[in-house]
Amino acid sequence: MPILTVKNGDNEIRLEFSGTPILREILAENGFAVISPCGGKGVCGKCAVAVSGDISEPDGREVELGCRLSCRVRLIGNACVEIATEQYAFDKENDYRREKKSEFAGLGAAIDIGTTTVVLRLFDSYGRLVGEKAALNPQRSVASDVLGRISASLDGKGALLSDMIIDCIKTLAKDICKDIDRKSDEIERTVISGNTAMLYLLTNRNPESISRYPFEADELFGVWVDKTYLAPCMNAYVGGDITCAVLSSGMCEGDKTVLLCDIGTNGEIALWKDGSLFVTSAAAGPAFEGSEISCGCQNIVGAVNRVGVEDRKIVATTVGNEKAIGINGTGLVDAVAAFLKLDYIDNTGYAEKPLEIKANGGCIELTQDDIRALQLAKAAIRAGIETLLDATDTKTEDIDEFLIAGSFGSNLSIDSAVKIGLIPSALAGKARCIGNAALNGAADILFDDGKIGRAEEIANSAKHIQLGGSEQFYNRFISAIDFE
User: Which of 150, 380, 391 is nearest to 261 (CA)?
Assistant: First the structure.
């Protein structure tokens, strides 16, 4: 059988194949996520690869771009392709300097395994941040959402899914160490946060218990595996990531009524009120991560990240001020809010034609399907917030602080979020973005063993509000689909 040799940094993998498959498809089937904001339509040119061997001739689009696209190249016989871990743009955050030396002498890693993105921060023993990198979660090539991956695991792909995420983490750590002239075997201690399903898949644990009613996880972690601590989860669908976020925020340490929302593929919401912690989760889908949007992408160079209106015209900026090649989650929220202001989208979400966004010589379009995807995602989050408040007899005016966590929330425009109805307008003045709080919490645990006990207390004391099967949540969701 013909063989495709995949070179990824210093790693080299040989894949046998049959027929004449598209390169992008065989890479995805084997866990190599290829950035493709246009969804494999050959429009954006972001899936360009260095490929050689027995392959199809370049088509017109490839000739125009002067490169080979993995979504266009067809393998005919033995071939070789070089791919690289996609790196993302980060906002500078404070490091974690401590007044005393940590428990480890070498390096320590804090990791957040998200459904869409994996982020790793590396620290020295004094808490100084020495490197940070992220990559797409390679499990996306198997399924874009949590339920799809759970199903794949139950169908016998558990080991594959585990290997994918472990290899991703190893690659990120190795890349950072290479940048700072250190060795990955100097990493002596690691703390990992992630939702419950991600931790099941990481450890190749049978996820049957979280795949069916009553969704009672048979493992909630909060355990050490060798030199790695897996953060404690609250239940099947409120994971270690939200435990770490609550820990980092300090919301449970005072007497204020505080609402925290981590907006992402699985929106997790926590409320601290009268000494009790209430939590819930709402499946929003990947729209906020830029996935399953026709021109969606991660926070990469060229991603439209800000959209506004000036003199009745759409204006936009991109990451790195480069030519627009796609749009990330915050850019999507901004864009829909801007088009609503111009009445190009009505309150039902209807747009007469695709909506153009131009920036730095590039032009992308939002389709009707893109708008609908955002409507469903924002309706799930909004309905989750309102149902949690209803269940705890809490009014928006009772909330003292509204914390928005997650990498998406770090760059979210509160005005745009209110305009599209993602968050109640009454909470806008109380809102504060706190960044990747899950990763911050993992870093807190990394440097303070006392935080482990506190994280476990938080996870064990949380009271879960079930949204699945809730008529109230369903009615709230339907009402929240339209724009305000």
Answer: 380
